Amino acid sequence: MDYKMYIGGRWVDASDGAKEAVTNPYDGKSLGTVPIATQADVEAAVSAAVEAGPIMAKMPAFKRSEILRRTAELLKAAERDMAKTIAAEAGKAYKFSLGEVRRAQETFTFAAEEAKRIHGETIPMDAATGGVNRIGFYVRAPIGVVAAISPFNFPLNLVAHKVAPAIAAGCTVVLKPATATPLTAVKLVEMLIEAGLPSGAINLVTGGGSTVGTWLTQDPRVSKVSFTGSPSVGRAIIKNAGLKKVTMELGNNSATILDRDADLDQAIPACVVGAFSNSGQVCISVQRIYVHRDIYDTFRNRFVDAVKKLKVGDPLEEDTDVGPLITEKEAIRVEEWVNEAVAHGAKVLVGGQRTGGVYAPTVLDNVQPEMKVVCDEVFGPLVSLIPFDDFDKALDMVDDSQFGLQAGVYTNDLNKALRAVERLNVGGVIVNDVPAFRVDHMPYGGNKESGIGREGPRFAVEDMTTIKMVVLAKR
Q1: 324 and 91 in contact (C-beta within 8 Å)?
Q2: Does the pTM exceed 0.90?
Q3: What is the pLDDT of residues 316-327, one digit of tens each?
């Protein structure tokens, strides 16, 4: 099937007719083609968004809320089809793809609620000597055109986290989905149109990040860039974007601490899912597990046994746990990192095999802090186990990272939990759960190389609006 872009209220091909195939990463089968946007196409999409700007800015809050809520309803009605699309183009196991669709329903619902909560407040002008006899307040206005650049690993919900708050705020959007996973975005745009979004309010362009993404972020008419992806691409976008607001959701090498009193019955299944759902291709996947030496052997043995029970295979089968990585190239990279670690003393406890684009769920121990599998972002089905004797030293090891997105801490000692909250330089500390935990209305984002800004509809709406101060002089 030939899919199209959506620009200015019309489904269109690229102006030069260029197309590229979208394939299933598990079996390589073609799922269809999408256009490769030209620079003129991108400029047309931004122009359409600019033209629709006044319409969206004047749209009443209740109407924006209705469109978002209707989109959530359409997602619910089509959730199995959407889940199959995600599983097919992203290689994400169906059970987790279905979970993503249901989360996206909530994301749109939360955004629908936030559309009705955008407000300013009064300012006590006479707190300053020059402000006597004046009344002051501020209102929030939509920032303008939002460039939404989304990743392959959550081709629906991370689109939702950019598009839904923008609509709630009264902005217009140009969406560029990941090159590998554009079909889910196409179907979502169809739903937004059916839900009543006016022409030009949402525009969809497809193609490569180095071309389409660059043209989009460099356009001076774009007021805000919301990007999820790698730190290297994030830095390039900031360099190219100029004076624009940016939200950057970047990488991580998420760590979890299990103190000696950790509830292993709860922690082990959570760590397994946290490490291997979506083949570990989640920026908050569990990558490093620091385990108190008193429970290390017990945890290691039970954890490895649980990993061995995971079903690896076709993501479209409903009982599959782990599918392929997004490309065989990524699976080869993970394999190379594991081989490099083993060559320097790491031990493979389970896994370590690659079949095409599928890399078996793998657990390592006897790793060192300088190994790539520990200090860099693996973004694959790989986790390292590391023993510790002192809780505070475990905190130091967790924080010894260029990243700072989320961390998990299992302990029944409130003082230790609060020490972790105080000392870890991360965007979220998850106590008695894994760092892979996220619900979609919470503020989500990282520090250091993990990004700038926060997602979650309320917090994204704040960043997609500007403050306009009003001062009335009494006469």
Answers
A1: yes
A2: yes
A3: 999 999 999 999
Give the C-alpha separation, 50 to 63, whole Å.
20
How many angstroms separate the CA atoms of 260 and 150, rounded? 39
Name the 3-class secondary structure at 224: strand
Active site residue 335: no
Q: CA-to-CA distance for 164 and 385, rounded, in angstroms?
A: 38
Does 171 participate in catalysis according to the annotation? no
Residue 475 has pLDDT above 90, yes or no: no
Which residues does residue 225 pair with via DSSP β-bridges, in sequence order? 147, 246
Q: For the domain that residue 184 is a member of, what is the CATH number?
A: 3.40.605.10
Residue 77 lies in a domain: yes
Range of the domain at 460: 5-250+450-473
Which pair of tokens denotes residue 332? 């080869």
Expressed in angstroms, the distance from the first to the final Cα of the chain is 67
Domains in the chain: how many in total? Answer: 2
Annotated catalytic residue within 89, 114, 249, 377: 249
The string of DSSP letters for 51-102 reads: HHHHHHHHS-HHHHHHHHHHHHHHHHHTHHHHHHHHHHHH---HHHHHHHHH
DSSP state of 312: B
Spot the catalytic one: 283, 330, 335, 449: 283
Q: Give the phi and the psi of residue 85 in degrees, each rounded to 5.
A: -65, -45
pLDDT > 70 in the chain, percent: 100
Q: By the 8 A CB rule, do 217 and 237 touch?
A: yes
- DSSP class of 360: -
Residue type for position 255: A
Task: Please report how many Cα atoms fall inside a 13 Å half-sphere around the Cα of residue 107, on the Cβ side.
Answer: 30
Distance (Å, whole) CA 332 – CA 317 = 24
What CA–CA distance (Å, rounded) separates 329 from 140?
45
Q: Are strands 451-452 and 121-123 parallel, antiparallel or unpaired?
A: unpaired
Residue 445 domain-assigned?
A: no
Only one residue has tokens 């749209």, namely: 59
